[in-house]
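Supplementary Methods, section 5.1.

A reviewer requested that the exact input to the structure prediction be made available. We therefore reproduce it here, unchanged from the version used in the analyses.
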Amino acid sequence: MEMKTGNFVRRTLIGTSIFGTVAVNPWLSYDPINLPKMFFVTTGAFILLTPLVIFRSQINRLSKMYLYSTSLFVVSLGIVIFLNSAPWSQQLWGVWGRATGFVTYLAFIIIMLSASIAGSQGYGPTIRRAFEKLSYFITFYAVIQAAELDPINWSQKAIIATLGNINFMSSFLGLAAISMMSRVINEKVGFTGKLHYSFLSLVNLLLIWISGSIQGIAIFISGVTVSIVMYFRKNIGFQKAIIMLGVISSAGLVVFLGTAGLGPLRSLYQETVSFRIDYWSAAIRMSLANWKNGIGIDSYGDYYQQYRDTRAVASTGPQRVSNTAHNIFLDVTSGAGIFCGLAFLLVFFSTSILILKVIKSGDYDENFIAISSIWTGFVIFCMISINQIGVGVWGFVFMGLLNGVKYYQSSQTPSQISFRGNTNRISTDPDRTTTFSRTNVITTIFLGLVGFLISIVPNYLDVEMLRSVRKLDFTKMATVANSPFATTFYKDKYQSLLIETGRDIDASLFALNEVKKNPRNYVSLKVIAFSPSTSDSEKAFAIKQLKLLDPLNGALISQLDLVGKNLR
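The structure derived from this sequence is encoded token-by-token as follows.
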């Protein structure tokens, strides 16, 4: 049976993205949300590597800024792993509970470039429909959770769908609502169709409102604004459309400042927005202090307490910490350095330039409007949130689609140009009818197996750690915690359980060994500082290091000073 390369890319891309959103494992995994998603996204991305090689000439026709910035980002992200002191396993797979390390970002880039291939072949509308159909499931599950009928006993009773957090759920539904409202505003779908999409959009917005998360609302408004501006652009002209967009954006900025307690609309103050400003400020300081190589990919949490300011501590106390900047651009820049961060920003900037050029030309259809609007919503998500895999994978898919459109349009006659595609062209386009050779099939299977093995390691350790914790099997726990692939979370959990069960000597020995490998392990340093089993010199080192890592934590410093007074 022949395998058409174009169809293979489309199907693999859709399947990878869908599983990257819905995959969960609350029964066996300690991290039931992110690691299962990373597994499918990484495996699917590696499967897509072969088509990237097959279509390399087509990839080379894409925007040079887009390709160069993408290449620079991947190369610089890979290099910095070896140039900073953060644990390499954490940089490779990401911190526990996030899983946004090098592997995930590499998978996102592969998926993005694959989406560019799909976009250049006119598959954009098909992929958009798949996204909307997926949103039906997410909406339905969110309704089930809102009605408190969830069959899965999650640790929190909230409207999270399969995304693990109300903010991620609301962001996904906000993106889906943009796509559906774009159909209502821009497309000829008939009265029944408009009613259908309007109803689904309202349900999504209602779920966002009930959840209490404002992220989805902000994303929806930004995306629909772009959709409306692009709709009116052909009637009012490019300059007036840009002015209109600028005015609306300025109004949005005033509203955002109000949610942060600033400006004339300070009555809209949201505490979570204030927290984000604290996290952004710390990330900026980290980036400036470590501008060359960063602090380590996905290592923000190891440095937050050191770089937070007095405002952050005074507002809620030193106990509030974070392992992410809640801004994807700042996460990348602080983790991998300014050069890598600028390259990442340029990938987005090149896509923005492409959209503006298309808007200026006026040569676009309703599907380009929709996907541009969805991607704009994703950019807002990147600025205020965490790069959650289930949402992020679709953002990179739509970014890739947009960059593939230009090649697709330039390959057709003016009468054929449409982001929807053309059925006559589908059957004759050599890019879509190219078949896999036997060598290509074998290579694809091999690369898929490599992706599988890379992503199964953290998933396996996660399952083993949860199993050993449930059974209080310290022997197995020690095996997992001492593994070179173990995250800091497993090490900290192991030490905490040792202390709780009165195994202070074992905890101290483990902590001392861990600090030799990672002198920034906060929990290990506290074990050493307060344990009766450690020597005075070991305590003195731990006390000095903790004061360096958490200089504004007055309560901790007071406790450390008491310990220090008793040292000989």
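The chain has a mean pLDDT of 88. These observations are discussed further in the main text.
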